[in-house]
């Protein structure tokens, strides 16, 4: 069984993440509420000094974990990998995490902040960054229902070797015309853009929104408050484009610029508000919102590259 996340204390959100990860990665892909209570008792997280009191605390925490799991199941519906009943969690469809590659990758990136051995900051162009950008593009295809694409930082796989050429290609993909390319630095890789997607309203015709997204996986993403630049991209391509940040986590973690925050201040609503404020009112696609797009429906043959 996967060890509990460090310093999670009685953080039910993180412990619910742990329960999901355990069921995804560990056979028999099943976890009972009773087993969870025993793990909590043996973890050293609970030390009231009285065995009966310790068990009651552990049972209360397990109950709160199951309440969250049931809420997630209702919110995500068939985009949730698990079946949740009153005292157990199990994979609902598929046989392992490989049937839920995108969901698992997002979960590991999120809960990984609580494990010192799990890397959570990646070099641009690395295998995980490329996979995450693909997951975001596929999630946006499910969320916005229109065409979506990764905007690569390099050429290859049908993309031009220079950024001007790639801008032309993304404009062609969305059937828009190219504007002024003079301000582009030839050495720029992606002008801050990672994915683009169209909001589908009845059809793929012009007159709707193109969503421009930066994926938050790099070591300094939280400081990139102006990327992608809407002002620049609306000059490069003739479209209406709101800014989106895709964040592969669901809370504010102390390691990413929020030391000393209480569990309430690190909660998902606080995190969404904080990230949006930091990034000029951007739409935030965090892990639960990305999951609603059911990226695993569109992600083909990527688990072998993880």
Give the helix/strand layout.
Blueprint: H1 12-25, E1 30-32, H2 33-42, H3 51-76, E2 82-84, E3 88-91, H4 101-111, H5 127-144, E4 145-150, H6 163-173, E5 195-199, E6 210-215, H7 230-236, E7 243-246, H8 268-278, E8 283-285, H9 287-292
Parallel strand pairs: 6-7, 7-8
Antiparallel strand pairs: 1-3, 2-3, 4-5, 5-6
Helix pairs in contact: 1-3, 1-4, 2-3
Could you walk me through the main structural features you see in this protein, from its secondary elements to its overall organization?
The structure is a single chain. With 306 residues, the chain is an alpha/beta fold. The chain folds into two domains: 12-95; 127-305, no CATH class. Helix content is 37%, strand content 11%. It has helices at residues 12-25, 33-42, 51-76, 101-111, 127-144, 163-173, 230-236, 268-278, 287-292; strands spanning 30-32, 82-84, 88-91, 145-150, 195-199, 210-215, 243-246, 283-285. The strands form two sheets. A five-stranded mixed β-sheet has the order 4-5-6-7-8, sandwiched between helices. Strand 6 (210-215), helix 7 (230-236) and strand 7 (243-246) form a beta-alpha-beta unit. Helix 1 (12-25) crosses helix 3 (51-76) and helix 2 packs across helix 3.
